[in-house]
Design a protein that fits this description.
This protein is α+β, with helices and mostly antiparallel strands. The chain has three domains: 195 residues, no CATH class; 68 residues, no CATH class; 141 residues, Heat Shock Protein 90. The protein has twelve helices and seven strands. A five-stranded mixed β-sheet has the order 2-4-5-7-6, with helices on one face. Strands 1-3 form a two-stranded antiparallel sheet. Helix 5 runs antiparallel to helix 6 and helix 7 packs across helix 8. The longest helix has 83 residues. The relative contact order is 0.06.
Length: 423
Amino acid sequence: MIQTLLYQNASSKQQLLRLIQVRFVYILGQLLVLAIAYQFFNFVVPTPPIALILLVEVFACTYSIYQLRKLSSVSELVFLMQLLFDLSAIGALLYFTGGATNAFVSLLLLPVTLGALICRALYAWAIGCYAILIYSILLIPLIPLDGMGSMEGHHHSMNLHYVGMWLTFLISTLLILYFVNKLSAALATKYKELASFKEQQLRNEQVIALGLLSANAAHQLATPLASIKMICEELSEQNSEDELIELMEQQVDRCQNILQRLKHKVNDPSPDDGQSIAISDFIELLKEQWLISYPDHQLAISNSMSPHTLVTSDASLLPAVINLLDNAARANKKANINQTAMSINEQDNFVYLTFTNSASSVSNFVAEELGKRPLLSTEGGMGIGFLLANSSIERVRGEVWLESDKSHIKTAIKLPKAGQDDK
């Protein structure tokens, strides 16, 4: 149960359900202990208030389960209130069964420990202070057990003993709050890092698989493209003024150039780490590639940066940005918009490329999952394209994300300036 409480992959609803289960077990334990104390030790306790406390606990458990079914998630404030209620219930039972003289007074540490595990530091310390307050109130000998007498009838050494118990409880509470909460936070951070590493590893495996498929497709496409090239040349000789034939030749040449670059990259797989490019050169290359792909669709670039600003780059960055712009351009053309606007800005030593296209909004799930794995439900093949683009941008320590409203989708690319460390 403790591992489930620690790890953040367990939902807040599961955590609260286990907390309620612990409370049910505790209620059964209370009934068992009271029955044994009465049957074998002849302890007499005030039945009405204890019965009322137990009924309130049972009602709280039942009501919490009922409310749990309606909630999609549970905030830490709910856990705080639940644990404060548990402390109040335990304190009330101890109050009517001997106060600090009760051997089960250390049960006050149970909610403190759970609070240190599942709550933030502020809430955990609030729970610990409340537990110390309850224990301090229990030292007042208002309702001692029959046969035990009051603190005033005890020897001075017994008074010191109770004070020592209080100090022990105080020190135990402080140690639990400090070390357990720190340990819980450290484990949660490590788990996040591990989950991020596994996600990155899975994404890399998908990219490698796509790369193998691309290499195989490139090998198979070489012969058909050569044949098409020969047919275009023959058609061009027969009708040299046909614009469609000329356009076909241009597109075939483009495909062959792409295959040649892929072949060159495979034959020379040296890493591109540490490369940089001036923002002005990057814009020129982007415009050049854009004219080849979309001669009838304008790319309007607004640059507020110095043209000599250097950004971290490699051979895959430009195709990645063009890939993302392709999605925006297709959506804009579908909406009869004749241009795609892109702005380039600098903030906190990072370069931001943002562009917006007119399209239906994407759900939060799709916006979060795009770039992590292919999504079969996406339109226009954006899932795989975004996956490849995201992997390429991450290689240069950049980020890419989507923001959407009812009629527009905004794509944002964050690139580090050359020489900047990760932030």
